[in-house]
Amino acid sequence: MDIQKIGEKLKALRGQESRDSFSAHFGIHRNTLAAWESGERLPSLEFLSLLAQQKKLSVAEILGEAGVVSTKGLSSPQKVQQEADTTVNSEYKLERERACSQFSWKGNDFTLIPLVKAVLSAGGGSFETTDKIEGHYAFRNDFLYYRGNPKTMKLFRVDGDSMEPRVSDGDIALIDQGQVAPRAGKIYAVRLEDVIYLKVLNTQPGKLILSSYNTDYTPIEFDTRGDMADCFSIIGRAVWIGRELD
């Protein structure tokens, strides 16, 4: 399976449509599409199935497994899924596993950290608290161990502007869930009732204060000795903030 040729096929199928428009249509980031088109990474099966439906092709034809591409006839979703399960699953998934194993084999220098779908609010609070995994990011082990324990780390997307200019809307926060002891002035992911926040944590006797870098937002204060104590928990400390550039 030639990854470069798959990338070229994706570019050809996109045609004159802009990368921004094309990626938005399929619900993926433009940088992800760029990596697929350049042959840097293999596209996901989910994307290939959707693309096949739109272009009236089979997944096998997009991957170059069935010779000359034909645009005649519309593949049903069931047929597309069946092709993804048969033609693609064996060779395609094996290729992905081989690429991943080659990447992580050299000295076991990298750890894959899960990106969960829960969103950390840098604003009025987020109710998206699911632990469902959206994907993984690879980090060097020495980078992670310097900051905490990789086994207790997860990545979360940030929503809102309350932590500007330090943390921006759309950033990704690396949270070490093993670091739950409050340290004054550090950034933590916290849960208050059914809402999760990304805030600067400070303490006073019997009181916790959740502050923002953006002065437009009023600090949240509550008494840790009252009824609110059972409604509050520290998810973990933010040890790194990153962002994807357009």
Question: Which descriptors would you attach to this protein?
Answer:
246 residues, alpha+beta, 434 Repressor (Amino-terminal Domain), Umud Fragment, subunit A, 2 domains, 7 helices, 9 strands, LexA/Signal_pep-like_sf, DNA binding
- What is the residue-averaged pLDDT? 77
- Main sheet summary: 9 strands, mixed
What is the CATH superfamily label of the largest domain? Umud Fragment, subunit A
Write down the CATH class of the largest domain. Answer: Mainly Beta
Identify low-pLDDT runs.
Answer: 65-81, 99-107
Question: Could you outline the blueprint of secondary structure elements for this entry?
Answer:
Blueprint: H1 3-14, H2 19-26, H3 30-37, H4 45-55, H5 59-62, H6 77-105, E1 110-121, E2 133-140, H7 141-147, E3 153-159, E4 172-176, E5 186-192, E6 195-204, E7 207-211, E8 220-223, E9 232-242
Pfam families: HTH_3, Peptidase_S24
InterPro entries: Cro/C1-type_HTH, Lambda_DNA-bd_dom_sf, LexA-like, LexA/Signal_pep-like_sf, Peptidase_S24_S26A/B/C
GO molecular function, one term: DNA binding
Question: Can I get a quick summary?
Answer:
The chain has 246 residues and is an alpha+beta fold.
What does this structure look like?
This protein has 246 residues and is an alpha+beta fold. It folds into two domains: 1-67, 434 Repressor (Amino-terminal Domain) (Orthogonal Bundle); 110-242, Ribbon (Umud Fragment, subunit A), CATH 2.10.109.10. It has helices at residues 3-14, 19-26, 30-37, 45-55, 59-62, 77-105, 141-147, and strands spanning 110-121, 133-140, 153-159, 172-176, 186-192, 195-204, 207-211, 220-223, 232-242. Helix 2 crosses helix 3 (30-37) and helix 4 (45-55) packs antiparallel against helix 6 (77-105). The longest helix has 29 residues, at 77-105. The radius of gyration is 22 Å and the shape is elongated. One of its GO terms (molecular function) is DNA binding. Pfam families: HTH_3 (PF01381), Peptidase_S24 (PF00717).
